Request: fold
Amino acid sequence: MCQKARMSRGNEGSLNKLKAIYTLHAELMETLDLACLPGCDLCCTRNVSVTTLEADLIANHLKKIDIPDWEGRLTLSKNLPRFKPLVTTNGLAHLCRLGKEPPEETVNPDWRPCPFLVDHRCSIYEVRPFACRCMVSKSVCQPGGQAEIDDYLLALNTVFMQFIEHADAKGYTGNLIDMLPLENRNDNDTEYIPNRPIEMILLPPEYQAQGREIITQLSALFP
Reply:
């Protein structure tokens, strides 16, 4: 399923679409009563998947800020276990449309911390990937516990992921650790999954009326 990656940096228009999607999601998060606070880092693992566009946005940001030895910590993380996706969100939708089962993926929440976690804070918070933005909880997570997220929000987050992938339909998806730094992203020993455009929206019927306005806003970014 994976292909050898030959990738180029995202263009400004695509990056602006990604930022607009992030903004719409942030506006949604502001309407929720969440327990997440600065210093909460139980979800800051090495299991974060990103698109090439998201990696580009982070790489551009890293040029402007000073994070102590981030490249060293990133290199160290490349030798540690981490989640490596086998199917993208729109790839999952494609399999669902065909009535096929998705591949089994291996992930462990104990594969932490994220190499960009510094003193229990996200050092790239301003440009953090969507996988981090959507990991929220209505109650305080305890060690060994789980986040408390509404089923509707989980479903809607999947839709946001579909549009993020759609914005980078000619790009790839992979683990954040493998996608950075940019100059290593053409390494023939590294594999990524090709992204896909949206074929169908993965929003269950019971949430379609509630989520119609947000889907309309997201769709408007792709005239």
Helices lie at 12-29, 52-62, 70-77, 89-98, 130-133, 151-167, 176-179, 205-219. Confidence is low (pLDDT under 50) at residues 1-8. The longest strand covers residues 172-175. Strands lie at 3-4, 49-51, 117-118, 121-122, 172-175, 191-194.
